[in-house]
Amino acid sequence: MLAGQPIVILRDNVERVGGSEAQKSNIMAAKAIAEAVRTTLGPRGMDKMLVAPGGDVVITNDGVTILHEMKVEHPTGKLIIEVAETQDEEVGDGTTTATIFMGALMAEAEAMLEKKIHSTIIANGYTLGMNKALEILEQQSITATDDREMLRKVALTSVTGKTIEDVKDKIVDIVVDAVTAVARKNEDGKYEIDEDDVVIKTMIGDQMSDAEFLDGFLIDKTRVQYGMPKVVEGARIACLSQALEAAKTQTKAKIKITSSEQMEAFNEKEQETLREFADTLKAKGVNAVFCQKGIADAVQYHLLKHGIFAIQDVPEKDLKRMARAVGATIVNKPEDITEETIGEAEKIAEMKDIVITQITGCKNKNTVSILLKGTSQVFVDELERGVYDGIRVVMDALEDGKFVVGGAAIDTELMLQLQAFAATQEGRTQLAIEAFARIFEAIPNTLAENSGYDPIDKVVALKAAHAAGNNHAGLDVYTGEIIDMYEAGVIEPMRVKKQAIMSSAETASLIIRVDDMMLSKNAQQMSRGM
Predict the structure, then answer these.
(1) 3-state helix, strand, coil in the chain (%, to 5)
(2) CA–CA dist 387, 172 (Å, integer)
(3) Per-residue pLDDT for 524 more than 50?
(4) Taking a C-beta distance cutoff of 8 angstroms, is the pair 354, 317 a contact?
(5) Structurally, what CATH architecture does the domain formed by 217-366 represent?
(6) CATH number for the segment(s) 14-141+404-514
(7) What backbone phi and psi angles, to 5 degrees, belong to 14?
(8) Where exactly are the structural domains of the chain?
(9) Which of 29, 281, 328, 376 qualifies as a cystine partner to 323, CB 3.0-4.6 A?
(10) Is 398 exposed, middle or buried (0-12, 13-18, 19+ CB in 10 A)?
(11) Distance CA 452, CA 477 (A)
């Protein structure tokens, strides 16, 4: 109040949540989201069924897909989903692990806040713990270069427990073949791989064991006219972004026609324009056209007469990737085509009995494709997610050449070594580092629970094995035994675990320091709250 007048700081549509209430709200959101996905972890994890408002169904155990489909409203929840999406974009796997770490970090922070440990001390301890964890991870990593068997183990670890498990041996070979086919060494002798060089296509029909590894690029479209050549040898390819149709005016316009002669002349001019599209393509030496938009019937007729293969309505993403594969440049219209913009391939052919066209012998020899098959759309979508994860982890492994053992072996080792490191620190920061060490216990706990075993017994057994010097000891989720995970072939890229630790620790440190939230609401949200 100032001289009896109220001072308005925030608008009516802004809700403020401050102090411990804001911290509790953020912690609760993180724990709830982690709890939603934790049952999907591991080879014996469960799937989630997500039903959209329109009735579309998604069944998956892929962490980032589950979080994306959940449509979370809480701001901290959205931050955690960003962590999972970043994990997926950067390394392609480990999204559930990163989310579980986030939930565990926030739960530990809640306990420390109740003991009156300041949030800045907690955040500092988490940062120290993260740096030490990354150092330990590097020390515990296994180095192997150009080792196909190690790559197979990495892919096998990634796809085990997913929909493709029944044919995992075949899928793993396809994934490793695809990645190694597009891998190229740079001047430093390290591998460089572009994930766009591996194209994944799906089709409904046949069994998933009929999956194929194919040379070149696949596009799930076929020629616009059946009279066009089904096979094109020595393809010279034009990629167009604009429709091959009569151009529409940019502004509203009227054409006044007062006689049949004028109408006939107008039609003739339009047909001449459409014919010129095909004539121009023929004159440029093009024998295959891929158009992002439509191709008018008249243009299709003239392309057919010239023996030019054509596909219309190609999705922009597919057109860009195909242009890269064949060495073409996407242009707007036929007259923009030059010799430099034309792509080349040895052969274009429609595949038998399916709506897919294969382009082989591409100018960019690094392009390969994987064709997946299944009995339903829900099934092939999950199949595609599993294969994508497998491809990404093999790429990570080949580029870095560094691996860690799975089955909670590396997590148990991190936990024990971090606890020892915490004892060397002074003050309350030691408590925060100890809390950071405990988050790694969430992985063996969850694996044991999801596999039907007592988590306390298994964690105690893991600690005992590691204390005895077996740093590769992990939980066999099928037998419940503590075994050497390296010998069992349960291997994952170090990059996956490293990214999960970094992204979860940094985000948790950021959220813990928040003690005030100002939430702006729209009119609809305000009416619901009344």
Answers:
(1) 55, 20, 30
(2) 9
(3) no
(4) no
(5) 3-Layer(bba) Sandwich (3.50)
(6) 1.10.560.10
(7) -110, 120
(8) 14-141+404-514, 145-216+371-400, 217-366
(9) 328
(10) buried
(11) 9
Report DSSP state, residue 302.
H
Fold category of 145-216+371-400 in CATH: GROEL; domain 2 (3.30.260)
Closest among 501, 507, 522 to 94, alpha carbons compared: 501
pLDDT in tens, 415-450: 999 999 999 988 899 999 999 999 999 999 999 999
Can you give 239-277 as a three-state secondary structure string? EECCCECCCCCCCCCCCCCCCHHHHHHHHHHHHHHHHHH
Q: Which amino acid is at 124?
A: N
Interatomic CA distance for residues 41 and 63, integer angstroms: 9
From first CA to last CA, the distance across the chain in angstroms is 27
Angle at 68 between CA 67 and CA 74, to 5 degrees: 70
Is the CB of residue 443 less than 8 Å from the CB of residue 105?
no
Active-site residues, by number, are 62, 95-96, 389
pLDDT tens for residues 147-191? Answer: 788 899 998 888 887 777 778 888 899 999 999 888 888 887 788
- Decide: 77 and 66 in contact? Cβ < 8 Å: no
Q: What is the pLDDT of residue 1?
A: 47
Amino acid occupying residue 480: G
Q: How confident is the model at residue 386 (pLDDT cuts 50, 70, 90)?
A: confident
